[in-house]
Design goal:
Rossmann fold; binds shikimate-3-phosphate; 5 strands; 8 helices; alpha/beta; Shikimate kinase; single chain; five-stranded parallel beta sheet
Length: 164
């Protein structure tokens, strides 16, 4: 049991700007696991920034890269993985990431999502629709739903105790 906990991946899902990256970093440190940000892995693979991939190659290309990375990371162990907000759109991503991992939905109210520099969440109306479309997916795949309304420190500690 203890060994399983140690080697498992923790996979964070949730809306853009819900705190997956900042929470994930803290959590990884506390659990002694490696922190991996899927968006960063995608950028490394493509040799371009996310907005560049969207602008130059389109969303489908981005989603294909995302699936490629999900399949790669899903085979590895001892990671805290911050997914992109849209990783739940393809069931195969969740299947791959869930193999060695526990999937946690980081829930945060719409008005509190950070929206800086994110190509798919530029206007509030679009973000609202996105939230409505995706909420059922986050709820379906997240084995544990977690509210991140407090500060990052407090949230990370709370999440940690929930995971034990
Ligand atoms: C996306 C969210 C982004 C990034 C890309 C697409 C989405 O990640 O993967 O811009 O579809 O919600 P964050 O959730 O880290 O912002």
């Amino acid at each position: 049991q203890k060994l399983r906990r140690q080697i498992e991946n923790i996979v964070l899902i949730g809306m853009p700007g819900c705190g997956k990256t900042s929470l994930g970093k803290q959590l990884a440190e506390k659990l002694g696991k490696q922190f991996v940000d899927m968006d960063v892995e995608i950028e490394k693979t493509a040799g371009k920034s996310i907005p560049e991939i969207f602008a130059e190659s389109g969303e489908t290309r981005f989603r294909n890269l995302e699936t490629e990375i999900a399949q790669k990371l899903g085979k590895e162990k001892e990671q805290v993985i911050a997914t992109g907000g849209g990783a739940v759109l393809r069931p195969e991503n969740m299947k791959a990431l869930g193999q060695n991992g526990r999937i946690v939905f980081i829930r945060r109210p719409l008005g509190k999502l950070a929206m800086d520099g994110r190509p798919l969440s530029k206007d509030l109306e679009a973000l609202k629709n996105m939230y409505a479309d995706r909420l059922p997916l986050y709820e379906r795949y997240g084995r544990l739903a977690f509210d991140s309304e407090e500060g990052i420190e407090k949230s990370a500690a709370k999440l940690l105790s929930l995971l034990e």
